[in-house]
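Long-time lurker. I teach an intro course on protein structure, and each term I like to show students one example going from raw sequence to a predicted 3D structure in token notation. This year I'd like something fresh instead of my usual example. Would anyone be willing to generate the tokens for the chain below so I can use it in lecture? Attribution to the forum is fine with me.
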Amino acid sequence: MGTLLFVGICLALIHRGQVVVAAHLFAIILITTFFLLLVTQFPEETGLIYLMLIPVIVIATLDRVRASVAYVLGIVGAIAFYTAVTPTFTPLDFAFFALVLLSISLTVWLIVVDHRRAIQQTVLLAQESRQKTDLLQHRAYQLQHSAQIGQRAGHTTNLPQLLTETARLIKETFKFYHVSILLVENNNQSLRLRAVAGQEKLLQTEHPYLLPVDDHSIIGWVAAHQTARISDNVTADPHYLAEPLLPETRSEMALPLLARGQLLGVIDVQSRRTWAFQEEDVAFLQIAANQLAVGIDNTRLLAQAEATLRETQALYQFNTLLASSLDVGEITRRASRAIAQDLEACRCIMLTWQREQPAVTVQVGFEQGTGAEAKAGFFWDTAVYRFQDYPEIERLLTSGETAVYQLDSQNSIPEQRILNTYHAATCLAVPLRRGTNSTGLVWLFRDSAQPPFHAEEIQLAQAMANQTAVALANAQLTSDA
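-- Reply from a regular --
Happy to contribute to a lecture. Here you go:
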């Protein structure tokens, strides 16, 4: 009955996962049982003594070698007591038993230690293999997304979409806290935030997010030196510029976007952990940065090619329009209307200059608009602008330069009077030149709801003004003949 109870308790412990506790209970009861049988009922059955080695082997295997040492010492003490009280087991028998016990125990211990060392080595190898497999899978995942960036860069012509998707892919692939993409502007004097993945509020501010190209920020430093920079601990980096919307940044890395030797912008990534950037991550990010730079460059080249094509088509149509008439007045009217429409000006005024006169005279004007009360069509004006009152006009005519004037209530230069007269916020003044001689001016106006004239528009206005001057000269020669 006791045996069944003992077995039941051991099985219950094993079922609950307490195998070591069950082993110790088994060893203690087994040694105690053998010793009591040896002392009380079978004093001459010395074979029971050697059966006490079984618990030693069990404990050494299932628990620790040190735990089995305690059992060896307990067995030696019990047999020493048995030797002292029983004449049938002599000291020589005890010495022989102790030698056998120690020999078997030592052998078991060595086997167990070697076996456990082999198991540990196998576990370490398995963990290392798993880590390498995970690393390879992670690198394959990163490479796949880098390829996606390259694929998008090679196929899309939508620059904002390319920048946004690239920032998102980098954040998702590398699990960064925040990713920003900034592009240069103002002749490489500043960087403007164009896309983010993380803190979207940076793009939702009232004014554009701008950073100067200087050493006062990590991003500015990278743009100024055109080389990558890693800050493993931003609190110790003198170039780090804290951003209130990114309070959890602990490390930062910025990479320049370079194409054909020119700086296009900077990719900036931030992490919540210090020392977060591994060598392999930097390599993959550099690949992504290079692919993005190529994509940005290709997109801009395509946009420039399309703009050049549109400009060529516009000039061809403009030249055809002017060449179909030899009437000076008609050419002036056609030119003012076409220039205003092609350059989206609210007004275009044509002024002529006779070299013997120190003034220009308005010949014709064309205005257009989209408002409910906006005028559309030609208006006649015979205003005369004398050089003594408007010296800037004489300078433009003699130099052949163009000029852009912005409405400024704090400025009292004469050109401000022109802007006020025609109710405009911006004026582009372009000389009518045939060769090196100026024959007049074109004034193009935009109101406050329209953007200022950009470089491509100014270039187109110059070309159209030159064609107008040639057409007017040809018409005048034909009329004189």
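Some talking points for your students: Residues 116 and 122 are 10 Å apart (CA to CA). The chain is about 55% helix and 20% strand.
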